[in-house]
Amino acid sequence: MVNALVLALTTALPAFAQATESPYTSIQGREIKALSQERVDSYVEGHGMGLALAAELNGYPGPKHVLELQQDLDLSGDQKTATKAIFTEMNMAAKALGAEIVALELELDRLFSSRAMDDETLRVKTGRIAQLEGKLRAAHLLAHLKMMNVLRTEQVERYSQLRGYGSGEHHGNHHSMKHHQKN
Question: How confident is the model at residue 11 (pLDDT cuts 50, 70, 90)?
């Protein structure tokens, strides 16, 4: 009986030791512990990162994808110009905000690694990061909203089809009044 208990403990201990190893050990070498390099690049390059899904999946086209689909959507010259302007404005804002977020995340990481973090600094830094992330999301969502004043109803529906979201008809109630009056 004692031998069986000793055997059970000696075989269980290595498994227990492995189970307590942190899943974060592989990311200890990151410059910014909280952000993967892919996430850093996405912030700095102004990528959407799913921040505008509330708009995209409810029938509000994004300017980047509208430009990619411009031939299929049969955009006019004015629509292309307006879409490029919306994309450029969004992208510039997203890059600036993203760079600021990355800089603050790096600062946050450095304060922790140098053991210089305190309660007030923590609240200020994380509050600022949250504020910037909100502005970043708003910049992406606003671009989708602005596209509703550029595209015709049938183009919005075609966009939804081309993106694989179905007919787009279920999105009709969400379009702005200005959009419907224009068409």
Answer: low
